[in-house]
Design goal:
One of its GO terms (cellular component) is cytosol. The protein is built from 9 helices and no strands. Among the domains are: about 55 residues; about 55 residues, no CATH class. By secondary structure, it is mostly helical.
C-alpha cells in the first residue's frame, strides 16, 4: 500500500478536528472553546507526525519488511533475550592468586608424571633428590642391619607392653599384637618342630569305612548285578536260538512236507 500524501494527511487531521469539535457552540467567540479546539488540533497533528515516524523507522519509507528482514529482526531479538548472563568474577587477592597458580602448576606436573612409564617416574623422582648416596654393598648391608635392629626394638616394646598388660583396645585394633614374622624373629625356639613327631605309627581300623570306600562298594555291587543280568539274558537268548534250530531240523527231516 503506497504511503499517504501530505494533502490526504491534512484532510484526515481536519476531519478528526471537526469530528471532535462537532456541535460546539460559539467556536469563534468563546475563549475556552477556542482553547479546546486548538488543543484538539495539536493532538491530531501530533498523532499524524507519530504515524509518519513509525512508518519511516525501518528505513523503507513505510513499506512492509521483507521476510529476510523480519527473520533477522526476530533473531536479533532472540539473541538479546537468550544471551547468557555473564557472572562477575570474584576479585581475589594477589596472595590467593599466587597460591592458585602454584596449585595448578603442581597438579599439571603430577598428571604429567603419572602419565609416564614407571621407569621414567622413578627417574623423575630421583632427579628431585638433592643429596644422592651411591648404593654399594657396604651401605646396603649397613642399611639392612639398621632396619633389622629397628624391627627388633619395636618387637621388644610390643612384648614388654603385652607382658605388662599395657596394650589398650586401640593398640589391639591398630595391630599392637605380634605378627608371626615378628614372633619368629624375636624367639625362633618357639617354632622348633618336635624331633619325634613322625615316630608315632597310626593303625587303621579294619571295620572303618570312609564315605569314598562306601561309594566304591556300592558301585562294585551295582556293576556286579548288571553283569549277572547280562549273563542271564545271554543264556536265555542262546536257549531260544537252540530251540529254533532244533525245530527247523525236524521240519526238514519230515518227508510229508515234500509230498
Amino acid at each position: 500500500m503506497p504511503p499517504k500524501s501530505k494533502k490526504e494527511k491534512q484532510k484526515e487531521t481536519k476531519k478528526l478536528v471537526e469530528d471532535k469539535t462537532f456541535g460546539l457552540k460559539n467556536k469563534n467567540k468563546s475563549k475556552k472553546v477556542q482553547q479546546y479546539v486548538n488543543q484538539v488540533e495539536k493532538q491530531a497533528q501530533h498523532k499524524a507526525s507519530q504515524g509518519e515516524k513509525k512508518s519511516g523507522s525501518d528505513g523503507s519509507s513505510g513499506s512492509k519488511l521483507s521476510k529476510k528482514q523480519q527473520l533477522e529482526a526476530r533473531m536479533a531479538e532472540l539473541n538479546l533475550v537468550y544471551r547468557p548472563v555473564k557472572e562477575k568474577e570474584k576479585k581475589i587477592s594477589p596472595e590467593e592468586a599466587e597460591k592458585k597458580r602454584i596449585a595448578e602448576e603442581e597438579e599439571r606436573e603430577r598428571l604429567r608424571i603419572a602419565s609416564l612409564p614407571v621407569e621414567d617416574q622413578i627417574e623423575e623422582e630421583r632427579a628431585k633428590l638433592k643429596t644422592k648416596t651411591p648404593v654399594t654393598l657396604e651401605l646396603f648391608l649397613a642399611w639392612k642391619e639398621k632396619k633389622a635392629a629397628e624391627r627388633l626394638t619395636a618387637t621388644e616394646k610390643k612384648v614388654a607392653a603385652a607382658k605388662s598388660g599395657g596394650l589398650t583396645k586401640h593398640d589391639l585394633k591398630k595391630g599392637g599384637l605380634l605378627t608371626g614374622r615378628e614372633l619368629f624373629e624375636y624367639n625362633r625356639d618357639v617354632f622348633v618342630d618336635d624331633a619325634n613327631a613322625d615316630d608315632e605309627v597310626y593303625e587303621r581300623d579294619e571295620d572303618y569305612r570312609s564315605s569314598d570306600d562306601e561309594r566304591e562298594g556300592e558301585n562294585e555291587e551295582g556293576n556286579g548285578d548288571a553283569e549277572a543280568a547280562d549273563e542271564e539274558a545271554v543264556e536265555i537268548a542262546d536257549d531260544a536260538l537252540d530251540d529254533a534250530l532244533d525245530d527247523a531240523e525236524a521240519a526238514v527231516g519230515d518227508e510229508s512236507l515234500f509230498s
